[in-house]
Each structure stands twice: as structure tokens, then as C-alpha cells.
Amino acid sequence: MREIAIHLETKPGGEVRVTADLDGVPAEDPPGRPWERTIPLEVRQALLRDAGTFDSGFGAGRRPLMDPVDLLDLGGRLRKAVFGPVIDGWSGESPDDGCRIVFRSSDAGLLNLPWELLPAQGGRFLVEDGRWSMRRTVRPRFAVNGAPAIPRPLRILFCACAPISLGQLDYDREEDAILKATARLGDRVHPDFAESGTYDELRELASVAEGIEVKPAHLKGLGRLTGVGDVFLDEGTVVAKVGRTTGLTRGRVTAFELDNIRVAFGIGELRFDNQIEIEGAEEGSFSEGGDSGSLIVGSDLRAVALLFAGSDQGGANGQGLTYANPIHAVLQALKVELALA
Question: Which of 20, 84, 275, 327 is the most exposed place for a label (fewest CB within 10 A)?
């Protein structure tokens, strides 16, 4: 798989220096000359401001929706500001076995820009091409605050909700507004709606599609889940997980009841306390982007934690650390029981 690494370095004056590596080799354009771009301060501010539209309305109870056409325009401006014409050559040379684009920066605002909206040739989004994947990571050289933890993100582009302190939304009106907006994108968007009302009602909506065989208590490569583990874990406890990206991996607990884990999300940096830290017990990392939500079990196949974030550095093998919520806290907060059959 080919990898394109985009390095975004925020300078003291606020402008952003952009460099790139192709399969670990500094990119050149023209040949013999390092490829480099500078994003002016005013352009950076405009991009962050427009991307902030995703979140700006929540606190004041305003509708935070962004017009789909504006989303397409934002993706185009990201492409122009960061890549210029050089991405045409890169995207046109994607090998059959895939290409991964990695964004590296110590600036959470830059990392959480909606890079998923980057357009490719032919009027499609880059990530619509099954050969491409995307991830974000704190750039080690410019890491700050001693906390290179990054989320494993899932973006929700449209959401209608009502804060407890405000009146109920007119869901029919909100749904109609979203349908009208997404209709302008034709076949590119297929929205699903769930009128939940309350969290308990939303939980009841969860179901498994007919015809899909599900064995919730079976962990591929490990065996059958046997129950819920102890509340407290010792450092050195051997654990394992089966994740979407890295599959079956094994690790060991390096810290328990760990506080002040700071993770950069789109709404800003969030702090997590009483968490579990895990390092890989093999050559690779214990987890990578896309593994969030993986159930972590002990050697007795009892559940001990739920994976939610990780880093690309640290651990005895230098391949990164994984952070997880204690499973007892998860079950209590969500008011659910672990399926064992």
C-alpha cells in the first residue's frame, strides 16, 4: 500500500507550512526540488471558521447544519489551499492495492478539519474511491503538551437534536430541511433518520438486519466471551482484542486508573480520567485508526475495557499506546449488559 504523509506545521505567525512524503521519501515538484506550500494566516483562519460551522450552533441551541453545497466548496478550498495541482498526479497514480493519506500536525484544529470532503478527479470525494484510506496523527516532531493521543473519528454530517434546557425540536421540519439539502447532491448522499426522543428509546431502535448471522459472544481467533472481568486490573495484565483495522492483537496493561488523558476532537480537546493504558505485546501496535469500539478481554476471555483512542508513539516497542474505558464504567453509563450468548 502506498502512503502519502502530509505534514502541517503552524508557524509562530499563524501561517501553516505544508510538506509531504511519498512512501517515506520527501516529495519533489519539480524533480530535484522539495515540494512545499505555505497557507497564509487569513486562509487558515477562514478554513477553521468554515469547518467550525459543524459545531457552532450546539451551545446556543441554533441549527448547526451546513449546506451540502457549502461542504463541497469547503472540500475544494481545502484541496486548493493545501495541495494545489500536485494532488492530481498523486491521486491519478493510486496503485491497485490502495493508498493511504496521513495528516500529521500538533495543531488539533488542523487535524480535525473535514479532510473527508477532499474532492478527487471526476467530481467525487477522494474517500469514495475504495483504494484510498485516510487517518490523522499528531506529528511527533511538533507534538505538544506531552499527550499525542488522537481519536478514532466517526463523522456525523447531519444531526438534529434538542438540548435538555430547550424545547423539543420539530423533527418533521428538521428532517424535511435535511432531505431538501441532501437532494441537491443527488446519489452522493443517502441519509438515514432515527427519531429517538430519548437515549433509552434510541437504544431500543438498535437491531440486526435479517439474514445477517451474528454471534456477539464469539471473538474470532480467541473464542467465546466468558463474562465481565474484575473492576481493577494489575499492570502487566495480558489482554487481547479483535478490531476492524488491525484484527486480532495482543497487549499488556501499562497503567490503570490513568487520569488526564487529553484527546483532540472537533469540538476541542477533551480530558478523560480513570482510563486504562495498553501497549502492544508484539511487533506492531495494539490498535490503529478504525479500531475504536473494540472489546478488550483478558487471558480468561472476560471483558475488561472498551477501546477509544491511541497514539503512534510510546510503549516498549515504540509502536504506540492504546487508551480504553473500563468496561464496568461503560456498562453502567449505558445501562446495558454484556451479551454472553
Answer: 84
